[in-house]
Amino acid sequence: MIQLEKVSKFFHTGSGEVHAVKEVSLHIEQGEVFGIIGFSGAGKSTLVRCINLLERPTKGTVIVDGTELTRLDEKQLREVRRKIGMIFQHFNLLRSRTVYDNIAFPLKKSSLSKEEKHKKILSLLELVGLSDKKDAYPSQLSGGQKQRVAIARALANDPKVLLCDEATSALDPQTTKSILYLLKQVNEKLGITIVVITHEMAVVKDICDRVAIMELGRVVEEGFTEDVFVHPRETVTKDFINTANNIDKIYELIQQESNDLTKLQDGEKIVMLTYSANNAGEPVLSYLVESFGVKANIIYGNIDILKGKSIGKLVVTLSGKAENIEKALAYIQERKVELEVMKE
Ligand SMILES: Nc1ncnc2c1ncn2[C@@H]1O[C@H](COP(=O)(O)OP(=O)(O)O)[C@@H](O)[C@H]1O
Ligand SMILES: [Mg+2]
Questions:
Q1: Which of 31, 121, 170, 266 falls between 20 and 30 A from 159, CA-CA?
Q2: Is ligand 1 within 6 A of the CB of residue 41?
Q3: What is the CATH number of the domain that holds 138?
């Protein structure tokens, strides 16, 4: 549905050239929810604006639904863009128009009759759960309701693709969940391909089938969400995951020499085990005691549910004879449980 081939975007500024996006190639399938995650300034917004050519790439090719957008002129682009909806962090609603008129706005140039437009708007209002707010003005709505209006507006022309640039970043966690749920419904019921730009791992975890991680304008890692979670390769990816599940706090705790919880006796080690759906149920820890006489004292545990599968992280202190601990570590790795020695 979306094909980016070596897309680069440079900006000329007073202080020199900014390379916002560098040689990004991505293939996003029809019907996917695809996440792009990265810290602020990584180039996410610029990249997503290259998908609908709000930003014209300096180099590279953009193909959406079989049409090479990078070959089109502005007039042709305006036509194609109707099939690519977009929503933003700050909603971008027309403040002087009602909810109904905001959704009607993109239908101005549509070929539908007046009656058909009216029906369309009512069905969109229903889809986003705002039928009772059709005469309200944006100022009378909560953040979550404003984003619902923006989603309805973005869907007015039956787009094939919906681009979401930090669509939940201005919302509280509860409202974020409800908007993500709505996006998932839009994806499943209407078959719309969704690209989600975010700096929040929770968003990726909740709805993305695949994810790409951006750093300094480049995509440094990409894959199925679950795989990236269990086997992150790049430091920036690990940082995101660790922040999301509080593992960064454990690292801090372990650095503190004075902490009794993480003070080690001779031969002891603190290790982090990451279980994936394939081995989450296995009683690895009890086996360590039984077979090697190695005790595992749990310092921290966290289980995530990713697309219905559980992924667990455990930080444990292993104590016992040094040679037995080595055997235990070998056994853990044999079980395909991801292992990181945090302190020894
Ligand atoms: N119109 C612009 N002119 C100059 N520099 C820009 C422009 N838009 C973005 N940039 C720069 O490009 C880089 C990437 O920005 P952006 O795509 O907004 O990142 P993100 O969305 O990941 O925070 C930043 O260094 C930013 O300052
Ligand atoms: Mg941005």
A1: 170
A2: yes
A3: 3.40.50.300
